[in-house]
């Protein structure tokens, strides 16, 4: 039951913020590449993107692990 509700909420998040998702993910990638304050950007990005989307975006630019993340 909890899993089903979580998937529904995830779909709502993705649908509600579909227009902002690509922009927010590209922004967090740029912050990571420039080694800027990633925490502040994460706090903004989580309003629009799921943890999975953020993780995949950061993995694309930083590999599996980077010390400043």
From TrEMBL:
One of its GO terms (molecular function) is hydrolase activity. InterPro entries: Cbl-dep_enz_cat (IPR016176), GTPase/Isobutyryl-CoA_mutase (IPR052040). Keywords: Chaperone, GTP-binding, Hydrolase, Nucleotide-binding. This is Methylmalonyl-CoA mutase domain-containing protein.
């Amino acid at each position: 039951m909890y899993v089903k509700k979580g998937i529904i909420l995830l779909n709502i998040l993705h649908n509600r913020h579909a227009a902002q998702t690509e922009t927010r993910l590209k922004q967090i990638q740029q912050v990571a590449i420039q080694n800027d304050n990633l925490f502040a950007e994460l706090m903004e990005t989580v309003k629009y993107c799921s943890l999975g989307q953020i993780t995949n975006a950061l993995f694309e630019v930083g590999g599996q692990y980077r010390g400043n993340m």
